[in-house]
Amino acid sequence: AALRHAYQAWSYEKMDLEKEIRMRGVQNLPYHPYYHDSQKYINILHQYVEEYLKLYYCCDSQVQEDQALQSWAGYIANDIFGGQKGLPESINSLSELADYVTNQVW
What sections of the chain are H helices per DSSP? Predict the structure, then answer.
């Protein structure tokens, strides 16, 4: 029961550093170590993830046509514990996939 409650209270936006910082309202602080330091690592991680995914997907249409990926995205967004707030039901571009994977790794 506790796990289900925690899972339902969670949202995808909390995994996105930029969105999380905006939700906290600290993006304009002159120096926020967690945000400023993490931002550097996330940019490096995102670049790595995007380059890695390009080994498997050369364009957005390949991402859109990957039925296993699309089924998985729909399952995660809708079926696990009644669905997750903010998760995309489909992934429509390489950029979206890179964002999603980066946030999962982060």
Answer: 2-9, 17-24, 33-53, 60-65, 67-78, 94-105
